């Protein structure tokens, strides 16, 4: 028990969890509304798409570097999936068919990122910034995408709900959509792959030390390319989930979410230098930032302070990663000298 506690207090996730508990109690004391059933459901609902994006960001950071293209991949792949569904008369099929179409297009866009990064060894941040602009131009320029209604299969999926609650005091109601199950499924699959397979070990090995990973027999280029293909597919699921939850497609509302997601995974303990990061921390960081986004009004604080908080997290997280990386290099150098 003592060893377990010592190990736990060394983890970033433990402190993020403590912050979540303290913040939730403060909000409850100040407003009396945090633990209301409709507020809890609203929090879970608000976490769905950012949590899916956070998997993309985690996989990229752990293996290669920052990926900021996933919101625009989500936007463009969702649009293409809706257009194909409408033009091929697939409105009466299962919602799953439209999601498969979106995943196909998302994987192609992710493959473009992976090809450029792996083939030319360009920084992932620069490449994904460039492809974000490319995808945005195609969506809003070439296709002239506008607000559009969902096909019948997605509209029916959007109307279905897991839970519907109503606050007896305020009369406000909230619903938890079926897309919450998609988020849970993605996390389970990602956890199993990262923690129970050689591919998952390779992802962390490549991010930790590319040379050592290659000597250990891992296909470094293949893993990095595959990560961006997978990220494209996950982004497509997130994009269509957002459309389903909104009950319409809104092309201009996808851009800009990457900074919040990156802040969330850094807050959850993902190291910007690669090789370190957990899905547990990823989920906790997303929950904390979702609480900040949704609950500032309950505390009577201006929503503009959210940007201050997120910016501070990115700066502090970058500094912590740099310090940890420097300390790690010093420790390795000292160990080599002692063993020489």
From TrEMBL:
<feature type="transmembrane region" description="Helical">
    <location>
        <begin position="125"/>
        <end position="143"/>
    </location>
</feature>
<dbReference type="InterPro" id="IPR001851">
    <property type="entry name" value="ABC_transp_permease"/>
</dbReference>
<feature type="transmembrane region" description="Helical">
    <location>
        <begin position="251"/>
        <end position="270"/>
    </location>
</feature>
<feature type="transmembrane region" description="Helical">
    <location>
        <begin position="282"/>
        <end position="302"/>
    </location>
</feature>
<dbReference type="GO" id="GO:0022857">
    <property type="term" value="F:transmembrane transporter activity"/>
</dbReference>
<dbReference type="Pfam" id="PF02653">
    <property type="entry name" value="BPD_transp_2"/>
</dbReference>
<feature type="transmembrane region" description="Helical">
    <location>
        <begin position="69"/>
        <end position="89"/>
    </location>
</feature>
<dbReference type="GO" id="GO:0005886">
    <property type="term" value="C:plasma membrane"/>
</dbReference>
<protein>
    <submittedName>
        <fullName>Monosaccharide ABC transporter membrane protein (CUT2 family)</fullName>
    </submittedName>
</protein>
<feature type="transmembrane region" description="Helical">
    <location>
        <begin position="12"/>
        <end position="31"/>
    </location>
</feature>
<feature type="transmembrane region" description="Helical">
    <location>
        <begin position="308"/>
        <end position="327"/>
    </location>
</feature>
<keyword id="KW-0812">Transmembrane</keyword>
<feature type="transmembrane region" description="Helical">
    <location>
        <begin position="43"/>
        <end position="62"/>
    </location>
</feature>
<feature type="transmembrane region" description="Helical">
    <location>
        <begin position="176"/>
        <end position="194"/>
    </location>
</feature>
<feature type="transmembrane region" description="Helical">
    <location>
        <begin position="95"/>
        <end position="118"/>
    </location>
</feature>
<keyword id="KW-0997">Cell inner membrane</keyword>
<keyword id="KW-0472">Membrane</keyword>
<feature type="transmembrane region" description="Helical">
    <location>
        <begin position="225"/>
        <end position="245"/>
    </location>
</feature>
<keyword id="KW-1003">Cell membrane</keyword>
<keyword id="KW-1133">Transmembrane helix</keyword>
<keyword id="KW-0813">Transport</keyword>
């Amino acid at each position: 028990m003592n060893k377990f506690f010592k190990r736990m207090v060394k983890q970033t996730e433990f402190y993020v969890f403590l912050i979540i508990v303290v913040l939730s109690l403060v909000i409850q004391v100040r407003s009396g509304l945090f633990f209301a059933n409709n507020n809890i459901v609203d929090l879970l609902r608000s976490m769905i798409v950012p949590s899916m994006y956070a998997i993309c960001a985690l996989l990229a950071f752990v293996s290669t570097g920052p990926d900021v293209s996933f919101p625009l991949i989500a936007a463009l792949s969702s649009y293409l999936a809706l257009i194909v569904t409408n033009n091929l008369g697939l409105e009466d099929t299962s919602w799953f068919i439209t999601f498969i179409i979106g995943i196909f297009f998302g994987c192609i866009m992710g493959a473009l990122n992976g090809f450029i990064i792996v083939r030319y060894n360009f920084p992932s941040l620069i490449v994904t910034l460039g492809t974000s602009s490319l995808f945005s131009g195609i969506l809003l320029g070439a296709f002239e995408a506008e607000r559009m209604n969902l096909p019948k299969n997605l509209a029916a999926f959007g109307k279905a709900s897991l839970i519907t609650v109503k606050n007896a005091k305020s009369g406000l109601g909230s619903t938890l959509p079926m897309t919450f199950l998609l988020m849970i499924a993605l996390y389970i699959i990602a956890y199993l792959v990262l923690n129970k397979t050689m591919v998952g070990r390779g992802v962390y090995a490549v991010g930790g030390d590319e040379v050592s990973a290659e000597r250990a027999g891992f296909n470094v280029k293949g893993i990095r390319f595959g990560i961006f293909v997978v990220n494209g597919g996950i982004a497509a699921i997130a994009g269509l989930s957002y459309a389903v939850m909104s009950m319409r497609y809104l092309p201009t509302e996808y851009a800009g979410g990457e900074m919040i997601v990156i802040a969330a995974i850094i807050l959850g303990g993902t190291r910007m230098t690669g090789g370190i990061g957990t899905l547990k921390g990823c989920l906790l960081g997303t929950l904390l930032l979702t609480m900040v986004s949704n609950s500032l009004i309950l505390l009577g604080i201006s929503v503009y302070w959210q940007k201050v908080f997120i910016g501070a997290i990115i700066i502090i997280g970058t500094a912590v990663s740099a310090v940890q990386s420097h300390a790690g290099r010093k420790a390795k150098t000292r160990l080599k000298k002692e063993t020489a």
